[in-house]
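Write out the 3D structure for:
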Amino acid sequence: MELQEALQYIEACEVVRLFIKSGAEVRVVMSRSATKFISPLTFEALTREKVLTDESEDWSSNLNHIDYAKGADIFLIAPGMAIPSISLSKGIGRLLFLLQDRP
């Protein structure tokens, strides 16, 4: 399981890299759980943007979930998992949108 999830995060890095290569501006939001598999620094190096996490959210700047969402043309959840997708389709906001990790 850990290996499979780790591979999915590596694939997420590749997706980010391809978006950047095509000229897209990419901002990354990570849950606390995601930061256990891959460091936010990895995505910061790929995007040259600060990664939004529970710990980095700052309401005195534009590093908060509201400002990050304002300029988004698309929102991609990677790696795609069934439970977040189902929650999103039902309007349940316990995902990264609110930056909450719950057991």
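Residues 94-103 have pLDDT under 50 and may be disordered.
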